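Figure 6 in text form: structure in, sequence out.
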């Protein structure tokens, strides 16, 4: 069983920066697809950024150029560097891991990001 723990959320001013971390347990992290999602109240969960086991990334259009996803396999951790934060970035951010070998995914508990205007 894989456990994911997000951290780094908080309250920031518009234009500020924040770095989220997602620490994973288990031995399959290096071959997992890691994704950050977010969900604001009353809205559907949306994909923010994704990084594959080979380091390929993709981003939502709304965050491209402002957010950067990275992974450190030695630390079993994926990061989301968020710069130039906007009010509309306010949401609970969730970490997701896909273990391709068994076709199963795991979710963290989420961390709140609030951007004030």
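Output sequence:
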């Amino acid at each position: 069983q894989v456990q994911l723990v997000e951290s780094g959320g908080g309250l920031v001013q518009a234009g500020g920066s924040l770095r989220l971390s997602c620490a994973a347990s288990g031995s399959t992290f290096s071959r997992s697809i890691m994704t950050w999602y977010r969900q604001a109240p009353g809205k559907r969960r949306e994909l923010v950024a994704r990084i594959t086991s080979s380091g390929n990334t993709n981003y939502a259009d709304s965050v491209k150029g402002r957010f950067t996803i990275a992974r450190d396999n030695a630390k079993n951790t994926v990061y989301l560097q968020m710069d130039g934060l906007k009010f509309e970035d306010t949401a609970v951010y969730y970490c997701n891991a896909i273990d391709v070998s068994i076709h199963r995914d795991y979710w963290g508990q989420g961390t709140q990001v609030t951007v004030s205007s």
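Caption detail: The mean pLDDT is 96.
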